[in-house]
Amino acid sequence: MIITKLVLKNWRNFRSASISLRDRAFIIGVNASGKSNLLDVFRFLRDVAKGAGGGLEKAVSDRGGMTKLRSLSARKDPEISIEISVAEGADMPEKWRYLLGFKSEGKGKQRVFVTQEAVWRDGKRLFARPDEFDEDDDARRTQTYLQQVNTNKDFRELVEFFQGITYLHLVPQLLKYPEQLGSSRIEDDPFGQGFLERVARTPKKFREARLRKIESALRICVPQLKELRFQQDEITGYPHLHALYEHWRPNAGWQREDQFSDGTLRLLGLMWVLLDGDGLLLLEEPELSLNDAIVANIPSLIARMQREAKYRRQVILTTHSEVLLRQPGVGIGEVVRLVTNSEGTRVEEPTERDKKMVASGLTVADVLLSKVRPQGGQQMDLWK
Fold first, then answer.
1. N or C: which end of the chain has fewer CB within 10 A?
2. Are strands 24-28 and 315-318 parallel, antiparallel or unpaired?
């Protein structure tokens, strides 16, 4: 399933926003326009849907409380609301719709209260809150039906879809030097610290099949690579990836992951998560650490992995890369453009003129990137 529409009110930068999505979306905008905050909407719903170890109160608390979440432009209306539409495919009718509104209690303990919550299946509303039970016991309004197994039975498929959302912003140094850095593992591992353990936990049959697909795709981006192999250390049991590169001496070109380039590790992580699961995948600037020749292949790489995966998963990513958006396979309908103003951030739909320019042969980068470049950027020359 994929998210086809997102409607926001008072969420961080976004006083109001309505966004249509396809099975692949590229979010663009100037720095601090809210690209990461937009991705965080989906992570927030995942955290609320966790139930045990999650829920509404914890999801809000983990983000610094209501004052950090609520838009600064929300002067008279303190409610934050999120509405999501989900379908089996980009051109298919809505299967599920979920609405969640919440705000601070306004007195006493300042608890986070559900102001509205509803679920629709195939256009039919299953429930709407607040209901008579909430009126009798206001403590019920501190929890969503989404997070409670005794109330979400009729829409468990939607709950599991939210729980399956994955965010990855792999930091190569955390993967290369885990013992030296000694850093604690962050819940849900968004920075790829446990990537090798994740590979190790995959049944051998599926692991080897995925590595062969990744190896084949990697050869396009890293021509010198000949073979990719998973191996566990016989003494420590710690998992490792080994790659064989072209070398004038036989078997002398083997390297372990701590010798891989940062870009190769980021590509490995990207391709693995594309094949590992069918839920929404969120990627933060996947072009980092990669040269332009490889960045140019990212859109086609995602499309290829989507085709080869058992279940085609939706991918939403943020990017600043002109090279990535210059690829002919990136459609103008796949780009979400964020524009800032005095009231926060708004989402700009492509104009008819934009669409005609792309149809005439220009790329999305040619048409849209110039509109999100910061004004006065040339003043940075003064610091040279």
1. C
2. parallel
Q: State the average pLDDT over residues 200-215.
A: 88
Query: What value, to the nearest 5°, has the Cα angle with vertex 208 and ends 203 and 214?
Result: 125
Residues 82 and 67 placed together within one structural domain of the fold: yes
DSSP string, 328-339: TT--GGGEEEEE
Assess whether pLDDT exceeds 80 at residue 130: yes
Beta-strand runs (E) in the chain: 2-11, 14-20, 24-28, 80-87, 94-104, 112-121, 124-129, 166-168, 225-232, 239-245, 254-256, 281-284, 315-318, 335-341, 344-348
- CATH number of the domain where residue 338 is located: 3.40.50
Q: Determine, yes or no, domain membership for 284.
A: no
Per-chain mean pLDDT for the chain: 84
- Hey, what are 48's tokens? 């609320």
Domain extent, residue 359, equals: 1-165+314-373
Model pLDDT for residues 74-119, shown as the tens digit of each residue: 778 889 999 999 998 888 899 999 999 999 887 767 889 999 999 9
Residue 376 has pLDDT above 60, yes or no: no
Sign of CA dihedral 258, 254, 202, 310: positive
Co-location of 12 and 155 in the same domain: yes
Q: Are 118 and 202 in a shared domain?
A: no
Task: Report how far residue 206's alpha carbon sits from residue 208's, in angstroms, rounded to the nearest whole number.
Answer: 6
Segment 12-32 shows an average pLDDT of 90
Is residue 120 domain-shared with residue 146, that is, in the same domain? yes
Distance in angstroms (rounded) separating the CA atoms of residues 354 and 332: 8
